[in-house]
Specification:
The termini are far apart. The chain is 27% helix and 20% strand. The protein folds into two domains: 52 residues, no CATH class; 135 residues, Rossmann fold (3-Layer(aba) Sandwich), CATH 3.40.50.300. With 259 residues, the chain is an alpha/beta fold. The chain is built from five helices and 14 strands. A hairpin with a 5-residue loop joins β13 and β14. The site of zinc ion (ZN) has 8 residues, from loops.
Length: 259
């Protein structure tokens, strides 16, 4: 073996040894830290990079819940808000005043899960109503609030808040629905929910309009929209699919029906 080959082999052996030590370092340090209740060191002593974290600590961030109508976005938002409250976090929930389908002051899902919320006319109202002590900021139906919501979420996350936004990602024509594309771009965590196509039963990611109105913003529930897959979706209002005989949810008013 010539000397250059030997040098290469020695370098390779040293590199392997160093990598083995590094990997041991990463395995053992968290275990030792857990045992002693200490913080894991943020800097690797040799290569100078931060240790990897799987969940945020001492920083804010943005979570987005998106999908079509009837995919359970509001229910998922309520679940996360309730979880934060059980964790004794200070939470504020906002929703657009425009969306008073079920209740003017409460966040209500199509299946009638409820939560108290602050109604707002514009995104800027969030800044006015935001309490300095708030740790979790939740906003539902963001498609009614426009692009002005994006810098507000960014500012809140930069201040250290956990920001949770829920809303439609496509309009009734199947086009990206602002501000959702921008929120998806800046979010740390994204949950895309699907509904069930009322025509064929496939997973549905579109909201089919079933009343003949051409405005982009039309507030409604089953009388105005139904969930459809990409094959059954038509980018214009169509006649509603006839209801089935299922009767799964009960209206709080006592009237039974499909919601
Ligand atoms: Zn379908």
């Amino acid at each position: 073996m010539c000397s250059s080959d030997r040098d290469v082999r020695d370098d390779y052996t040293k590199t392997c040894k160093r990598r083995k030590e590094d990997s041991l370092f990463y395995w053992f340090i968290p275990i030792l830290d857990c045992a002693h209740g200490r913080e894991r060191p943020s800097l690797h002593p040799r290569i100078g990079v931060h240790a990897v974290r799987n969940s945020p600590k001492h920083i804010g961030w943005i979570e987005v819940i998106c999908g079509p109508m009837f995919s359970g976005k509001t229910e998922e938002l309520i679940r996360r808000v309730k979880r934060a409250i059980y964790g004794k976090q200070r939470v504020q929930v906002f929703k657009p005043k425009l969306d008073a389908r079920y209740h003017p002051l409460r966040l209500v899902s199509h299946s009638h899960q409820q939560f108290t919320s602050i109604p707002i006319e514009r995104s800027e109202d969030i800044l006015t109503a935001l309490d300095a002590q708030t740790q979790v900021l939740a906003v539902d139906e963001v498609q009614f609030l426009g692009l002005a919501l994006v810098p507000i979420c960014e500012t809140a996350a930069n201040r250290g808040l956990q920001v949770i936004c829920a809303g439609l990602d496509q309009d009734y024509l199947g086009n990206p629905f602002e501000p959702m594309p921008q929120l998806l771009a800046i979010a740390e965590q994204i949950t895309k929910l699907l509904a069930i196509c009322v025509v064929c039963g496939n997973p549905a990611n579109r909201s089919q309009r079933v009343i003949s109105r051409g405005e982009r913003l039309v507030v409604g529930a089953t009388e105005a929209y139904e969930a459809r897959c990409r094959r059954c979706f038509v980018p214009s209002p169509v006649e509603a699919t006839p209801p089935q005989t299922l009767d799964l949810f009960e209206d709080p008013g006592g009237k039974r029906g499909l919601f």
